């Protein structure tokens, strides 16, 4: 089998996580041949993490990388550049794995959706939460009827920046800039919590939200609450909180049904507990960081099959659009002071 040449575009903190997943897969048919970052020092630093022997070049831009340095790209640039870079890479006939969120505007989402529908390349969105082992297990238990038909769920995304036992990961400076991030806590990490609730309860119909700028380092909302009405009549709550103070750990997710409740522990290292009338069981399925290896495996599988991502695929652009629409509806709700439709 011919080697698939992979380009990593954006060599910041999340790049290391994707690279670790690649190394864990140990697939000799995949070779990282291009590292692209406006900061070439960051790219050179990433190059040192590659297994020897290294046959990889460093570039300062997608344009500099040219048309023949890679076959597929993982795009991990600041959010406001997603549309521009994805458009440029797809125009070169390359396959794409694009980090979440898909875009930070409705117009950006529509452009990338149109590109996904017109291209014959693999175009997948890296929403890691769909591969989060505890989320996968919760969805399996729901389908098996362990807690009955769920009627309510809540998601809590919280991060204490700089607190050793709490820090999600190294946070780049651009995350604090709403023009580059697309907002504050909702777009920074909260969007990862939207998809699991959709997978557990269904597509969202309306939201009513309020936010607060409580931590001035992040120049947008650091606290957000959203009541959620689902299209099937179910209900939920989303809570996002970024700060630099220690916080009591609360569940990342709780899903309630007439026969029981599922809790995904508020620890990135993992944990899930199921409460039913008869018993309580606890397990560790691998934790949040266990999501990146199966996500990369899914992308590589599509590359090998040269298989276009269908709309039903968990990594499809159309599914990623729905996550962004929820985020944007939260912002509109805060601005207008009432319930906002998710679909526009």
UniProtKB/TrEMBL annotation:
<dbReference type="InterPro" id="IPR000683">
    <property type="entry name" value="Gfo/Idh/MocA-like_OxRdtase_N"/>
</dbReference>
<feature type="domain" description="GFO/IDH/MocA-like oxidoreductase">
    <location>
        <begin position="136"/>
        <end position="262"/>
    </location>
</feature>
<comment type="similarity">
    <text>Belongs to the Gfo/Idh/MocA family.</text>
</comment>
<dbReference type="InterPro" id="IPR036291">
    <property type="entry name" value="NAD(P)-bd_dom_sf"/>
</dbReference>
<dbReference type="InterPro" id="IPR055170">
    <property type="entry name" value="GFO_IDH_MocA-like_dom"/>
</dbReference>
<protein>
    <recommendedName>
        <fullName>Gfo/Idh/MocA-like oxidoreductase N-terminal domain-containing protein</fullName>
    </recommendedName>
</protein>
<dbReference type="InterPro" id="IPR051450">
    <property type="entry name" value="Gfo/Idh/MocA_Oxidoreductases"/>
</dbReference>
<dbReference type="Pfam" id="PF22725">
    <property type="entry name" value="GFO_IDH_MocA_C3"/>
</dbReference>
<dbReference type="GO" id="GO:0000166">
    <property type="term" value="F:nucleotide binding"/>
</dbReference>
<feature type="domain" description="Gfo/Idh/MocA-like oxidoreductase N-terminal">
    <location>
        <begin position="4"/>
        <end position="126"/>
    </location>
</feature>
<dbReference type="Pfam" id="PF01408">
    <property type="entry name" value="GFO_IDH_MocA"/>
</dbReference>
